[in-house]
Amino acid sequence: MTGQDLNWDDVRDLSRRVSAGEPFTLTAESRAILQRTGPQVGIPVADVQQAIQSEAGAATLLTEIARRIRDGSNRLSRALSEVTKRQEAGDMDGARQVLRDIVEDEVVPLYRDIAQIQLEALDEA
Fold it and tell me: DUSAM domain: from which residue to which, for each copy (predicted)?
């Protein structure tokens, strides 16, 4: 994936507008946003394709994509903060375990990859 592919601002913006009361409309643009971002947050392509067959399904998909982006980002941030605390306390095994848990459990591939890179950096240290 390229940096351009991972621009989630459009899905965040769409989600904010819908959350603020703007009605969701399944347009070519919103369909393209969902088709692109769904797999990027770990939703199978077949599930995305099924969801975008109706406005209700697409709106539910939008909510799930936005939730995965937000929740995954929060989990990763908390984990990286915990890793830093454990490193500063000299608990390298504990720091590694925090990262292993994220790598094992995280559904958003980008966040999982970031945790894996951090884990590999710790293993090399």
Answer: 7-121
